Amino acid sequence: MRLFRRCTRISILSLLAISVFTPVFLLSFRLKNLNTDASKDFVEDLSILKHRIDAQANSAVQQEEVEGLKGPHLVVYRDGDHGSLVSLDENDRRHKAENVNLLQSNGDTYGGQEKNQRNLSEQKVSPSREKEKSRPEGVQHSRSIQSHLRRPLDEKVKEMKDKVIRAKAYLSFAPPDSNSHFVKEIKLRIKELERAMGDVTKDSGLSRRATQKMKAMDGTLLKASRIYPDCSAMVNTLRAMTYNAEEQLRSQRDQTSFLVQLAARTTPKGLHCLSMQLTTEYFALQSEEREFPNQHKLQDPDLYHFAVFSDNVLACSVVVNTTVSTAKDPEKIVFHIVTDSLNLPAMSMWFLMNPPGKATIQIQSIDSFEWLSIKYNEDQQKQKGLDPRYASVLNHLRFYLPDIFPSVNKIVFLDHDVVVRKDLTRLWHINIKGKVNGAVETCVEGEPSFRRMDMFINFTDPSVATRFDANTCTWAYGMNVFYLQEWRKRNLTALYHKYLELGSKRPLLKAGSLPLGWMTFYKHTHALDKTWHLLGLGYDSGVTRAQIEQAAVIHYDGVMKPWLDIGIQKYKSYWNRHVSYEHPYLQQCNLHE
């Protein structure tokens, strides 16, 4: 009995001890954690106060830096005007470049242009609002539902990029040599979020880690907003950052455009190597081995005569091979190639090694035309342009076709950057109604090949305005059928000389043969069906596969030629398939697709 009572007493005392000491223990542990958090918050508050003091000490310097940055002009945009200065598309840039008159004889004042622009912008806004009001409610409701359903797929990605930009803006407020805890933290958050995003462009590609890093960035940005509460400084910094980014982008675009133009003017290393190889082989031949067969056909007016003026061996080979391979009667084709004296041996050697089937070929040098030095050399000096291609003799030699081929009555002139896909001998059966030039027109507004005469010719000049109509339909070089007999009757070569002379005395037209051709063959051109000649493969014009399949000739007009590295890949295959890349000389010169 005593033992039972003792055990009962001990158990009661134990329970009492536990009930007394447990609250004391829990309370002391809670107070310990509370003191730790309070000390951390206290340290953080001290850090924030320190950064605020630093920010206030450097506020004058920061304000001077922000004011010293070249900021953009303040513009108030209306509803719907969300385009950035950088987001000008190529059509707008091209249209703006074309409207900048080379001749600088417009006479419009800046004030008048500003009024017109203001009135035009007001007219643009009001009709759009009237249209919105006039729409039925059902249509507006359906569109609002569609816009709600079409939520952007990159909303989170854009939000993350915006947070990185904000973090960098806050980082710019810190002193340059600062190595504080906040600077280290915000640099770490920027690096982590950029790594987490990577090259992702859609929200579906983001990982859970990226979302976690964004939440961590939110905390850091909240802390930064407490340290730097001045919103006006942030606005000025972001505006300056945006403007500087746009300026850099514009500069990069200008540099890219210059490099593309430079690449278009230079000869690729592989083509130069090929010319050297062929030239060496040509001079190793005997004089009788340098002769081409069937030379008696060269002046036969009953045959199909084609002309190409070029110094590019590979380009000429593609033109010749595609024309002959698509012809119904290749033995009736006569090709006349004119090049300069430097490339004559290489051009001759290529076609001696690779004869164009049953067709007849003739290779000539411009130096063999003794009359040309008298007629053209003086005018050539007056046709000055930054691009030597425009003032070259080969480019203007097309205006002397009746003199070069005195016995030929009809000839098809081809540029060296074309590929023939259908039989061109059918052109001899087209009635061009007494005109001199048969060409495809380029006056359909909205098409990539659209041209107007006033884009290249100065119609503010009285002598131009009285002789020509600016609304006359333009046409393209590249594939033209010329009736040389009619050309001789009208003495159009003399007319060409007249306009060339006139353009050398005053700013009349842009450099090149196209505006001179429009003026020389004004009212002497017959429009061919557009399927004969397709333009736009030398720039990103949006030409479709169906259009290419229908065309008789496809033209790589523009600077992105198919034999250059800058050529457009989706169009290169139509040219590459006609080049014998397995040829040993092409292999030695590292020429490949």
TrEMBL record:
Pathway: Glycan metabolism; pectin biosynthesis
Coiled coil segments of this chain: none
Gene3D superfamilies: Spore Coat Polysaccharide Biosynthesis Protein SpsA, Chain A
Keyword Transmembrane helix assigned: yes
Alphabetic keyword roster: Cell wall biogenesis/degradation, Glycoprotein, Glycosyltransferase, Golgi apparatus, Membrane, Signal-anchor, Transferase, Transmembrane, Transmembrane helix
Annotated stretches, region: Disordered: 104-147
Main subcellular location of this protein, as a coarse class: Golgi
Domain of life: Eukaryota
The enzyme's E.C. designation: 2.4.1.-
Pfam family, any one: GAUT_1
Classification via CDD domains: GT8_like_1 (cd06429)
Keyword Cell wall biogenesis/degradation: yes
Subcellular location as annotated: Golgi apparatus membrane
GO cellular component entries: Golgi membrane
Topology with respect to the bilayer: Single-pass type II membrane protein
One GO term (biological process): cell wall organization
Positions with biased composition (Basic and acidic residues): 127-140
Example GO molecular function: glycosyltransferase activity
Family listed: Belongs to the glycosyltransferase 8 family.
Full protein name: Hexosyltransferase
Lineage, opening ranks: Eukaryota, Viridiplantae, Streptophyta, Embryophyta, Tracheophyta
